[in-house]
Write a structure and sequence with these properties.
elongated; 0% strand; mainly alpha; 2 helices
Length: 80
């Protein structure tokens, strides 16, 4: 979220320097769109950047067994 806010501030400064009044209106609208879409975009972007793939239980049962076992051993709540 800090990254998104930093981008919005930087965009605001650039637009202000270039377009002044109309630029501020454009920046506010684009900032609202950017912040409202951030929760959906950021995880997908991180997956794509790291070339990650979703793993199902059938593909790697040992991994899921470890993920379920460790919180129990540590006395934490289960991962859902």
């Amino acid at each position: 979220m800090l990254f998104i806010c930093g981008m919005a501030i930087l965009l605001g400064v650039i637009v202000y320097l270039l377009l002044v009044k109309i630029g501020l209106a454009i920046q506010v609208v684009s900032g609202i769109i950017l912040i409202s879409s951030a929760p959906q975009v950021i995880p997908k972007l991180i997956y794509k950047m790291n070339k990650a793939e979703l793993v199902t239980v059938e593909e790697d049962t040992q991994l899921f067994a470890i993920v379920e076992e460790h919180p129990e051993r540590a006395g934490l709540s289960k991962v859902t």
